[in-house]
Amino acid sequence: MLKDFSLPLAFYNRDTWLKVAFFAVSVVMAGFSLYFTDGLVTKLEEREKQQIELYAETIRYALTSDNNADINFFFERIKKINENNTIPVIWKDGSGHLNSINIPIQESLPTEQKQEILQQKLLEIVAENNKPIEMDMGFQKEYIYYGNSKLLKLLRYYPLSQLLVVLIIGFLGYIFLSYSRRAEQNRVWVGLAKETAHQLGTPLSSLTAWVELLRNEPHINPDIVVELSKDIQRLETITTRFSNIGSTPVLKLEDIEAVIQSFISYLKIRISSKVTIEIHSSLAANQTANLNKYLFEWVIENICKNGVDAMGGHGQLRIELKEGKNNVIHIDISDTGKGILPSNTSKIFSPGFSTKKRGWGLGLTLAKRIIENYHQGKLILKATEINKGSTFRITLPKPA
Ligand SMILES: Nc1ncnc2c1ncn2[C@@H]1O[C@H](COP(=O)(O)OP(=O)(O)OP(=O)(O)O)[C@@H](O)[C@H]1O
Ligand SMILES: [Mg+2]
């Protein structure tokens, strides 16, 4: 169930609308352009056919008329117009000889070879599927074959190139929107974290001063002061975490097992005593990793607390450290809890997704962000089984 986490959800809604609008505009544009080009192609086809018909009529007249002087002039004019249109034309004259226009053929070749080339071209033209135009010569029928002009061929491919352009624009738009959404989210995260650290800082330093004053008061129970100091320490840890996430966090080479051991001993006393936590490591002794300790501890805390919640405060947490292929360190955190429904596994890292009454659905989002953006690592749900448990895996690069 998604919580009322209005800020990021507002981003998603706006983004989804923008993407839908973008897609719809692209489809309308592509559809309109296809329709328009299709109309143009049909008109051009019709015109080319009429031209060839006129041409055929002239040839027929030339071949059957005695008045050759007049007709030759007319014939040459039409030939000129057709040359400009680049429609390839082939026809057979009364003696079976092939004639052509707009078919590139070397003039110097012997007639026989030219005829062979034309025969070959004729087959290609026939394959273009234009119905040949019949010329009724009175004593017999002749046919004039024609292909498509360069313009018509280009126009046929034009919609494809347009579709490609629309697809490329759509793809770039999608990347841009996703990038701007991420950038916007980043600004919100970082801004909120910075502001929280800043707001907490002032009352904390004044609290520390007050505790110091109380420490020196003889009639105050020293146990109270110790408890107060612990709470202040906890608040300081939170402030440090927020201020680290609100700026570019500094990474340091840390003994990874030692960091986890020390944090787990701190965490153990703060969770149900019916939860046991085991740590197993097959890493080399003192294996280091580049860490921001405060943020890394936050990740471990979020994953462990989720495990504790899933077990209803009763069960076993196991942390296993081992080497992986390609110079990485794996930290597998397993619980014996209720597991995650298959329909939810893809949602658990989304901000605002929670199945808990009091959950904000932020823990795993934050943990993933810390591991992937600040530690160049990976955080995944490695395995889960209903009523058996789940395993989350953190992968960190081994230092060079
Ligand atoms: N170990 C786990 N076992 C079972 N379900 C889990 C486990 N870890 C996470 N989940 C599921 O993923 C959801 C999201 O976890 P996430 O830590 O992001 O938020 P949350 O724990 O609900 O709230 P928050 O951490 O903000 O207090 C949880 O509500 C739960 O449904
Ligand atoms: Mg959580």
Principal-axis shape: rod-shaped
Helix content: 55-70%
Q: How many helical stretches? A: 8
Ligand identities = adenosine-5'-triphosphate, magnesium ion
* Main sheet record: 5 strands, mixed
GO molecular function: ATP binding; phosphorelay sensor kinase activity
Transmembrane segments: 20-41, 157-177
Catalytic activity: ATP + protein L-histidine = ADP + protein N-phospho-L-histidine
EC number: 2.7.13.3
Structure in words:
The protein has 400 residues and is α+β, with helices and mostly antiparallel strands. The protein has helices at residues 6-64, 68-85, 111-127, 150-215, 222-245, 256-268, 293-310, 363-374, and strands at 89-92, 98-101, 133-136, 141-146, 252-255, 275-281, 288-291, 315-324, 328-335, 378-385, 389-397. The strands form 3 sheets. The protein has a 5-stranded mixed β-sheet with strand order 6-8-9-11-10. Strands 2-1-4-3 form a 4-stranded antiparallel β-sheet, with helices on both faces. Strands 5-7 form a two-stranded antiparallel ribbon. Helix 4 runs antiparallel to helix 5 and helix 6 packs across helix 7 (293-310). The protein is rod-shaped, with a radius of gyration of 40 Å. Bound molecules: adenosine-5'-triphosphate and magnesium ion. Adenosine-5'-triphosphate (ATP) binds next to helix 7 and helix 8. The chain crosses the membrane at residues 20-41, 157-177. This is histidine kinase.
